[in-house]
Amino acid sequence: MLARFFGKDTDPDRLNTSLVGVNGFASGNLYKWYEGISKVYPDIKVTKIKDTPFPLDSRHWTEIDAELKANRPVITE
Predict the structure, then answer these.
(1) Is the N-terminal amide bond of 73 cis, ω within 30° of 0?
(2) DSSP assignment of 63-74, as one string?
(3) Cβ distance 36 to 46 under 8 Å?
(4) Residue 42: pLDDT band with limits 50, 70, 90
(5) What do you get for the CA distance between the two ends of the chain, in Å?
(6) Beta-carbon neighbour count of residue 67 at 10 Å?
(7) Which tens digit of pLDDT belongs to each residue from 9-23?
(8) Could you tell me what percentage of the chain is helix, strand and coil, using 3-state DSSP and rounding each to the nearest 5?
(9) Is the pLDDT of residue 30 over 90?
(10) What are phi and psi of 75, to 5 degrees?
(11) Is 16 helix (H, G, I), strand (E, B) or coil?
């Protein structure tokens, strides 16, 4: 989804193959969020990583909404 947001012509299978080729996984199957996508597409950068509690509180939802309103994608886990 993130790659497509930035106009990349890919799909999950092709992206997975590309990530395998650039060591974009740790321990065999854990995606390296902070660096994997940038190894495949150097023009896509992770600019902020933030650990949040579960469940999210209103402050976190406000921050997520602000990022989305600024047309910046948000990845949550």
Answers:
(1) no
(2) HHHHHHHTT---
(3) no
(4) very high
(5) 14
(6) 13
(7) 999 999 999 988 998
(8) 40, 5, 55
(9) no
(10) -110, 125
(11) helix
